[in-house]
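Changelog entry: the Translation initiation factor IF-3 record was regenerated in this release. Current contents:
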Amino acid sequence: MAPPVKSGPRFDHLIQSEKVRVIDENGENIGVMYTEEAIEQAAEVGMNLVEVSPNADPPVCKFLDVGKYRYEAQKKANAARKTQKTQDIKEIKMRPNIDDHDYDVKMRAMNKFIDNGDKVKVTLRFRGREMAHQHLGMDLLKRVQEDMAETAKIEAYPRLEGRQMLMVLSPK
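Regenerated structure tokens:
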């Protein structure tokens, strides 16, 4: 069985290159030296040799406390995750023979969703004999499209799926 994979930066004896560029605990460049020698110097100061830029040639290492470094990196990642906005899909359901006031209420809700940065899925449900008048549904979705033209763009054009017509709008 393979050993468990360690996450995070390599430090001390896990550093694989023979020579490294070393930066001390005060942020000053000491220069390029052998990895073993750098590890000994870090131990004298009571720190670890941590690889901060493994892709450089030679890799850049710093005198740091590994636990503290990992903790800071985790805190930074959590803060970034907290501030990012996920885009939800909100659904608005209508009928082909919707009244003007009801339509206005739905449009206000749609504008609110779009302003919040969410996508809006407009679902138009047909019942019974309304299936014979699909052009009314298409006209209604075209009206929605025109009313939302300034704030939203069409992501999925109106299409019929069974007894309902769907359209997806997303913020511009």
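Residues 89-171 form a domain with the Translation Initiation Factor IF3 fold (CATH 3.30.110.10).
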